[in-house]
Specification:
single chain; alpha/beta; 19% strand; globular
């Protein structure tokens, strides 16, 4: 968990871990705001806090500091303003025990409208996902992976999406989607699509098209660039026709589950 100025949500994210049906987990909290998160560690012995003077380095660097401390066989990301359904850890462990050669998996993502708590979108409701299918979701799905195979994060725009594409590529082109538990992503007023101009977002996607942050196979790079072009097209359509709609309801009306 990269932690940045959302202590109340971070505590709620931890509570979702405490409610997991499988209790064999650890949480590595990596502060990026200079604040004291030792209270989270005092609340549960399974929580560790990265000791670092680094501030405002961005989520990729903060996650990498946590990754260096991780001791579990599996690694997953839990952002400080999100939470997990109760079977998430059990589903991940079960999958990797059953499929011993699998390096990565993911889980569907439910977009939660904060503070109402209603589900705005539910993406990734299928058994397997390649980069092409991921590109048609127009959202974020974090990769879960074996610690020895899990790649470090690269900082930059859409770093969650690019990291998942890298994991899919490392897996040979497709990863399984865990069934029975979702990653719960909060939407709030500081979400990128709420605060950024569409022109700036499209420009950032075009920069990624010119230079991908990760080295990838030829097929993986080709599919990732196709994903980026789809996002540019959707973003520009939202700019033209979104009106009073927010981004995710707009996308929901134009995509299939």
């Amino acid at each position: 968990m990269a932690a940045y100025q959302r202590p109340r949500f971070a505590a709620m994210a931890l509570e979702s871990l405490k409610r997991q049906s499988l209790r064999d987990w650890e949480l590595i909290v990596s502060p990026d705001d200079g604040e004291d998160y030792s209270g989270l560690a005092r609340s549960d012995p399974r929580v560790k806090v990265v000791r670092s003077g680094e501030v405002r380095t961005g989520p990729a660097h903060a996650r990498n500091r946590a990754l260096a401390m991780a001791s579990g066989l599996l690694v997953a990301v839990l952002d400080d303003d999100d939470y997990l359904e109760p079977a998430f850890v059990a589903q991940a462990v079960c999958h990797f025990k059953k499929f011993t050669h699998a390096k990565f998996a993911t889980a569907s993502t439910k977009y939660i409208q904060d503070p109402l708590g209603s589900v705005v979108r539910h993406i990734g409701q299928f058994a397997g996902m390649g980069i092409d299918r991921f590109g048609c979701q127009f959202g974020t799905m974090h990769a879960v992976g074996r610690r020895e195979a899990y790649p470090p994060w690269k900082p930059g725009f859409a770093e969650d999406v690019m990291h998942t594409c890298k994991c899919i590529d490392l897996a040979g082109g497709e990863i399984a989607v865990l069934q029975g538990a979702s990653y719960m992503l909060r939407l709030h007023s500081s979400s990128l699509c709420a605060v950024a101009r569409c022109e700036d977002v499209s420009r950032s996607y075009k920069d990624l098209l010119a230079q991908l942050p990760y080295e990838m196979s030829g097929a993986g790079a080709l599919q990732t660039r196709a994903l980026l072009r789809r996002r540019i097209e959707m973003n520009e359509a939202f700019s033209r026709h979104g009106g009073e709609l927010q981004y995710h309801p707009f996308v929901q009306a134009r995509t299939v589950p």
